[in-house]
Amino acid sequence: MDTLLTYRGRVVSTGDVAFLRSLIAQHPGASRRKLSLDVCAAWGWVQPNGTPRDAVCRGLLLALSRAGHLTLPPPQWVSHRPRRRIVPPLPVEMDRTPVVTTLAALGPVEIRQVRRTAGEALFNGLIQEHHYLGYVQPVGEHLKFMAFAGERPVACVAWSSAPRHLGPRDRFIGWSASARRQNIRFVAYNSRYLILPWVQVPHLASHLLGRMARMLPLAWERVYGHPVYFLETFVHSERYRGICYRAANWIFLGRTTGRGKDDRMHRGPNRPVKDVLGYPLVRDFRERLARLP
Q1: At CA 143, angle to CA 150 and CA 179, rounded to 5?
Q2: Confidence check: pLDDT of 1 > 60
Q3: Domain at 179, CATH number
Q4: Residue 194: CB partners within 8 Å, gap ≥ 6?
Q5: 120 and 28 share a domain?
Q6: CA dist list (Å): 98 to 152, 198, 244
Q7: Residues 122-158, buried b or exposed e (16+ Cβ, 10 A)?
Q8: Fewer CB in 10 Å around end: N or C, the chain?
Q9: Among 74, 48, 81, 64, which Cα is nearest to 4's?
């Protein structure tokens, strides 16, 4: 059967569309959510924890409707509230006295997970004010950590779900497309890393990366119910050399194409080319990530 489109790893054929049309015709009064749950059940389309992929399925149904392949029932509920404007985090008031010392003289450094705590607003504000990419609210699984020397923040580290497609990483791991779709949740992406600009402590950045590699798998499993086996990040090579990652034994995997995930025309780079670095958390990471249930 002909393939009409691929959506979030699901290949949709003309036979699938015929099934969807029949399902809609058999349940003319059903809501879009009810149809979505029925489709998930029929296709066995579930998350690793067994929950139906309802939101993804509804997105697929909407994409097929917009492309003219089927007609969805009208939505049963429409919000009349104006769309909420996203307000960036505000600058924070804090002690910005320079911290210029050695790692040994800095004293004990405590790393705290601050997502969904009173410290999250401080984290967001510092990233917005001092990270060159600013703050963007993560989607999917993510955790936020802050490092403190005494009660003074010295660093912010954010981790989130890894991008689905990343050539250098996928070639390094050597997993199949189906294994990647099943196991991408076991990879965490270091989306932001900030040593506060008034903190000048040699080796602090690599020291924190080493500690994060030891504590992140347990923190991730505590919140999301599964571990992570591999870490990855991007380094804007025109701005930074990634010395702290290399000092913490991260591995250079290759470079991005510079086209981004939304590129469809393949007309060359439309954003900066970045180095891709990775860090295995277990020795048999390839076997675990390539394993299919």
Answers
A1: 145
A2: no
A3: 3.40.630.30
A4: 126, 127, 130, 131, 155, 156, 157
A5: no
A6: 11, 5, 21
A7: bbbbbbbbbbeeebbebeebbbbbbbebeebbbbbbb
A8: C
A9: 64
β-sheet bridge partners, residue 192: 158
* Residue 253 phi, psi dihedral angles, 5° rounding: -105, -20
Joined tokens for residue 221: 């499993």
Q: Are 39 and 57 in contact (CB under 8 A)?
A: yes
Rounded to whole angstroms, how far apart are CA atoms 231 and 135?
21
Is residue 31 within 8 Å of residue 23, measured between CB atoms? no
Q: How many domains does the chain have?
A: 2
pLDDT digits (tens, 9 = 90+) for 33-55: 888 999 999 988 887 667 888 88
* 106 shares its domain with 56: no
pLDDT in tens, 200-255: 999 999 999 999 999 999 999 999 999 999 999 999 988 888 999 999 999 999 99
Q: How many residues in total does the chain contain? A: 293
Give the range of the structural domain holding residue 26, as residue numbers without chain letter.
3-66
Do residues 35 and 24 touch, judged by C-beta distance below 8 A? yes
